[in-house]
Amino acid sequence: MSSPASAFTISDHFTNKDPIVKAIYKTILNTVKDLGPVKEEAKKTSIHLVKTSAFAGIATRKSYLILTVKSKTDVQSTRIARREQASASRWHLEIKLESPAAVDTEVIKWLKAAYEIS
After folding, report:
1. 98 phi and psi angles, rounded to 5 deg
2. Rounded Cα–Cα distance for residues 116 and 53 (Å)
3. With 90 as the cut, is the pLDDT of residue 98 above it?
4. Where are the alpha helices (DSSP H) in 1-118?
5. For residue 40, which of 25, 31, 65, 75 sits 20 to 30 Å off, Cα-Cα?
C-alpha cells in the first residue's frame, strides 16, 4: 500500500492542463538532462528536479508553468516574477513560462547555475 507522500505522480500535474504546459516541461527536462543526472520528484503542489538536492521546482497552471530555480545571488531580470532570499547565500527565483520557446539561453543559464550548486 502506498503512503500519501508517494500518492502524487508527475502525470497528475498535467491533468486538466493545456498541452502546452507538458511541452514546456519536456523542454526544461531535456535541457537539464544534458547537464547530468536528474531525478524528478512529484510533490503535492509541484515537481522538483533534483541532483543531490532540488535545484528547480515546477508548478503547473492551466496554460503555463512557474519555474523556480535556486541561485547563489539575486538576479536582476524583468522575467523574474518573484524572488525570495532563502538564506544568506541562496535565492529562489520564479519565472513564468508560457511556451517551450521561453526556455531560452537566459533560462538555460539559470538552470545550469542552479544545477551546479545543488
Report:
1. -110, -5
2. 11
3. yes
4. 19-33, 105-116
5. 75
Residue with cell 503555463: 64
Distance CA 56, CA 49 (A): 5
| DSSP character at residue 115 | H
pLDDT average, residue stretch 57-84: 97
Look-up: residue for cell 508548478? 59
Name the residue with cell 497552471: 61
pTM, whole model, 2 decimals?
Answer: 0.92
Examine the pLDDT at 9 and tell me if it is beyond 50: yes
In this prediction, residues 54-67 reach a mean pLDDT of 98
Task: Name all domains of the chain by residue range, CATH numbers in brackets.
Answer: 4-116 (3.90.1150)
Q: How many whole angstroms separate alpha carbon 74 and alpha carbon 26?
A: 26
Rounded CA-CA distance 36/98 in Å is: 25
